TrEMBL record:
SUPFAM superfamilies: P-loop containing nucleoside triphosphate hydrolases (SSF52540). It comes from the Bacteria. The gene is sufC. It comes from Marixanthomonas spongiae. SMART domains: AAA. GO terms for molecular function: ATP binding; ATP hydrolysis activity. InterPro entries: AAA+_ATPase, ABC_transporter-like_ATP-bd, FeS-cluster_ATPase_SufC, P-loop_NTPase. Residues 2-246 form the ABC transporter domain. Keywords: ATP-binding, Nucleotide-binding. Pfam families: ABC_tran. Belongs to the ABC transporter superfamily. Ycf16 family. This is Fe-S cluster assembly ATPase SufC. The keyword ATP-binding applies.
């Protein structure tokens, strides 16, 4: 589904990613871990097409098509979704109106008519119930005055509504208490299928107790320096990253 080949990228002339290779197949969950400043959020941003990041070298191939020249919204229409580490507030735009617009813009890009209002309401109700979201929450301005947990739950609600092919979750677990973490993880697990894939970027093993990865990658110094199964995340939790640094010397 996603092939990243020799990706070099950065911001304001600074090289942050220094040769990333990554293959993600449909049906898989990949976890990307690593110390602060290793390039995890940069990788998520470059895949999603955030404009402040510059791609210096390499390819991003999504479902067989090179997408590195596409705008963020074009990538979204193709089925890419990025859950932000720090979701922004949009006063005056309700959660419901935002999600209706997002879904209908994607349908328009595919040559489809707007989703009928009755179908939209049914889907909103179904996904809100799945994520234990109060209906009043949906009429509030997007992320305005939301707690950290509410912002993250709202991101997963958007994910549930958009049903992307590839979801990238950038530190969705940061700032969540254990109950909110379980709700968010449960939502992600219900959305997983053989036809979609998830990339989870996290510092902590605890999220991976609930969203169990097929593959774990360690990003350090702008490169993937180690890959393994879920047991690698357990080892990182217990021993930190020093043992990997020693292996690299």
């Amino acid at each position: 589904m996603l092939q990243i080949k020799n990706l070099h990228a950065g911001v304001e002339g600074k090289d942050i990613l220094k040769g990333i290779d990554l293959d993600v197949n449909a049906g898989e969950v990949h976890a990307i871990m690593g110390p602060n400043g290793s390039g995890k959020s940069t990788l998520a941003s470059v895949i999603a097409g955030k404009e402040e990041f510059e791609l210096h070298q390499g390819e991003i191939v999504f479902e067989g098509a090179e997408i590195s020249e596409l705008d963020p919204e074009e990538r979204a229409h193709k089925g890419l979704f990025l859950s932000f580490q720090y979701p922004i507030e949009i006063p005056g735009v309700s959660v419901t109106n935002f999600i209706k617009t997002a879904i209908n813009e994607t349908r328009k890009a595919k040559g489809l008519d707007d989703m009928p209002a009755s179908d939209m309401l049914k889907k909103i109700k179904e996904k809100a119930d799945m994520l234990e979201i109060d209906r009043k929450f949906l009429s509030r301005s997007l992320n305005e005055g939301f707690s950290g947990g509410e912002k993250k739950r709202n991101e997963i609600f958007q994910l549930a509504m958009m049903e992307p092919k590839l979801a990238i979750l950038d530190e969705t677990d940061s700032g969540l208490d254990i109950d909110a973490l379980k709700v968010v993880a449960n939502g992600v697990n219900k959305l997983k299928s053989k036809d979609n894939a998830v990339i989870v970027i996290t510092h902590y093993q605890r999220l991976l107790d609930y969203i169990v990865p097929d593959h774990v990658h360690v990003l350090m110094g702008g490169k993937i320096v180690k890959s393994g199964g879920k047991e690698l995340a357990h080892k990182l939790e217990a021993q930190g990253y020093d043992w990997i640094k020693e292996e690299l010397v």
